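User: Hi! I'm working on a homework problem where we have to compare a predicted structure to a textbook description. Could you give me the structure for the chain below?
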Amino acid sequence: MSGSAADSTDSHVIIGRVTGLYGIKGWVKVYSHTRPINNILGYRPWYLQRADGWEEHQLAEGRIQGKGLVARLAGYDDRDQAAELLERDIAIKRAQLPRAEKGTYYWAELEGLQVFTLEGVALGVVDHLFETGANDVLVVQGERERLLPLLMDQVIKEVDLDAGLMRVDWDPEF
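Assistant: Happy to help. Predicted structure tokens:
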């Protein structure tokens, strides 16, 4: 799959989250939904979630630190200022995403699609996706929750973003 996103709105795609403070000079720890994780540092500007919407921020600097990422946003020069950013989602505008290669999709594009079997049985709607060691998994919410492996051509037979639907080779009893 091309990229990853945990959640989206009409115009924004969430690509990460501020998860902690790092040092005393305004740096924060960042959890990235992008793959590789440091791809998040290439998107500018960032938009951070507030109760009343999205707030634009300029990324001053960022880097891999150990197994994670740290970043400093412009205007946040000490730990107390950076604390205001804690537990806020990081998003970009949907238009900032590069076009996915043919046959690949961003997770945010798949979320919300209606899922049908090849026989036309409605299974529900793609609620979200998650990673496993073997393959990514679609969480489909319908009359019950189903976990479908995100295996193009094997399980996922058709994705029609314009129509908002996905056709799958899947037993509705499973």
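For your comparison, note the following. The chain has two domains: 7-95, 111-168. Residues 48 and 90 are 5 Å apart (CA to CA). Good luck with the assignment!
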